[in-house]
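User: Please predict the structure of the protein below. I'd like the answer in C-alpha cell form so I can feed it into my own downstream comparison script.

Assistant: Understood. Taking the following sequence of 132 residues as input:
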Amino acid sequence: MKKNTVKAFIVAVTMVCLSNVNTFASNFDESAGLVKSKIAQVNNSLSFNVWVDNVASKKVVVVVTDADKNEIHREYVDTKGGKFAKTFDFSSLADGKYTIEVISQNVNVVESKTFEIKTNLITNRDVVVAIR
C-alpha cells in the first residue's frame, strides 16, 4: 500500500512540474513574438518610414490621426510576410499636429510618433531707388 501511495505522489509531482514547464514555455513564446516597430522621418521631409516586425500572428494596424483624434488614415498590416515597411507622404496635409501609431491587437500601442506641419512664408521686401 505504501508503494502505491509513493508512486501516486511521484506521478502527481511530475504532472505539476510538467504543467509549470508548459506554462513557462508558452509565456516565453509570447514574449519572443512581441511586435516591434520603428517610425522615422525621411531626411527632414514630410514623409515617414514605418517598419513593423513579428506580425505573423498578430492583428496590427497603422493609424494616422490629427490633433483632435480624427482618423486621417488607417492601414491594416498583412500578416503573411511577418514584416511591413512603407513610406507615408504627408505633404498634402494641412498645417497642424498629427500622430502616427502602430497598434497591435488588444489596442496596445507599439510605437507612436507625433509631428507638426507648419508652413513658413517668407516675405522679401526690396527698395528700388528712382534715378532723377
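That's the full C-alpha cell string. The domain at 36-117 is CATH 2.60.40.1930 (Immunoglobulin-like).
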